[in-house]
Structures are given as structure tokens and as C-alpha cells.
Amino acid sequence: MSTTKSRPFLLDFEKPLCELEARIDQIRELAQENNVDVSEQIRELEAKADQLRTEIFSTLTPSQRLQLARHPRRPSTLDYIQAISEEWFELHGDRGGSDDPALVGGVARLDGIPVVMLGHQKGRDTKDNVARNFGMASPGGYRKALRLMEHANQFRMPILTFIDTPGAWAGVEAEELGQGEAIAYNLREMFKFDVPILCTVIGEGGSGGALGIGVGDRILMFEHAVYTVATPEACAAILWKDAAKGPQAAAALKITARDLKELGILDQILPEPSNGAHADPLGAAAILKNALISNLEELFGLSPEQRREQRYLKFRQMGKFLG
Description:
By secondary structure, the chain is an alpha/beta fold. It is 49% helix and 15% strand. Strands 1, 2, 3, 4, 5, 6, 7 and 8 form an 8-stranded mixed β-sheet that branches.
């Protein structure tokens, strides 16, 4: 069996596990063809595979987690929305002449609760990525997001955002159209909303592009996602004039869910299925749905004033120096 054909987007650290799994499948097929009982050997090899899987995914470096966060088959915002919601209806346009495909959103029901869902959307292949600008939203995208969030606040619908972007679009045209102002305006307005806001980092949370939809009552993050002030490659290019030192920068930036939980940035780390979310998208979606419903139930117990106050204090306390 060719591991390359069965796993076309295989990461380097996954190869030993993939080769062992392929060997198990090959032995099982040969045994069936020759009517030989190898159940005991299969059990031993499967136990070895489970142990190897645990060793690999429990000791990943920040750079390796970044590879998982950027995996081409990792579930996207639309994948999760369609898997966890009912009656999803996408809404378009910022009412200013733009409809950015890099940031999508709309109305839906989550376990019967009317909600507004929105998030960054990357592509599945090169053509789709180009069309969606690799998930890097323009000013129009953030203004569309704000329009949807204002709609949610007006009609008392919780806001669920999904973060997955290397950063906001940094092109000259984006600056001409007010990229910084659009993101800053979103930050200010999100602190004012009365309704519950849940923000989940589902893949790559980068720079102000992530923050533009990242102010919430609760910040959730998948265990192999990353959240950072700048991409490790950009950081390395700035500090060491060498983008190849990205892995060193990734370690220094504290981009992993565990690091961010310890720093008080995150409220909850969502476990991923074995081999990562890309290996079992529906399993990852079920984990996300349960977490969102659980957090919403808690936030519904608070008044709008309590939510606003706690949201403000939550972000004010970030970045405190320890004496």
C-alpha cells in the first residue's frame, strides 16, 4: 500500500505512524486472502500504533502544531457551520459595495437557538485559496462581519466567530480602504454588544486579522490550533532577518493552546480527534458543538450588563506583568 496515495498531505512527523497503519492494513488484507488468523499480531500492532500516536501528538513542537493548523484538509469555518448548525443561511455584503469571500457569515440555529455565525474562510486548493485570498480578509470583510454582529445584537442572537487566518490582508489597496480602522472599529463595538459572544480559534489565528472578530465573553481554541501576534516566519524575518528561523520564533512566541491557557488568554482548550481535526472533521465538529452549547448555557445566565463588564475585565487583565 502506498502511504503517499492514501495520505496525500502527509506531514513529516506523521510518516512513522502512517507507515505502521499501512503495514497493519496490508497484513490484514493478506491474512484474509490466505485465510490465516493473525488477530493476535494485529492487536499487538494496533496497540503499538496507539502508543506511537500518543507519543507523536503529545510531544509536538510549536512549529509542528503550526503545520497541523495550516493543514490543507483541516476543517474550515464553513465546514464547521454546516456540520453543527441547522437552517444555515449565508448573508453577503458590507452594504458599502464589498462582499469579501475571505470572511463569511450568516444566520443559523445551534441546537434550536437562533445565532449569527461568522469566520475566516480559506480555500481547499490553490484556485479556491486565491479566490478567498487565503483567508486574509479585506476591510470590507471586517465591515461585513460588523454588520452581521450588529444584526445579531439587535435581534438578541448570540454571536459565534471562528478564527482561521494568517492575518488581515496587508495589500496597498487594503490600507487605502482603511484596514486598520475597520479592525479597530470592530474591537470597540464588540465590547459594547449585549448578546453572548463566543470566539473559537479553529486553525491559524494571526495578528490583527484574528482580533478583528476575536473579542468575546469566552475564547475557545482547538488543541492543535495556534494564536499569535504575527506569523513565526514574519517574526523571524523581523528579528533575525531570516524567515527560515520560523521554528525558533514559533517557540518564543508562545503560540500553542497550552501556552495561551497558562497565560490567561484562553478560557477553554478543545481536544481534537486522534491524528488531528483533519483526520476526523465530524468528530471535531461534535466536540466544537458541545463546547459552544455548554458555554452559551452559562452565558445566558448572566445579564447583558454582567456580560459586558466581564468581557471588558477579561481583556483588561491580559498582558499583566507578574511582580
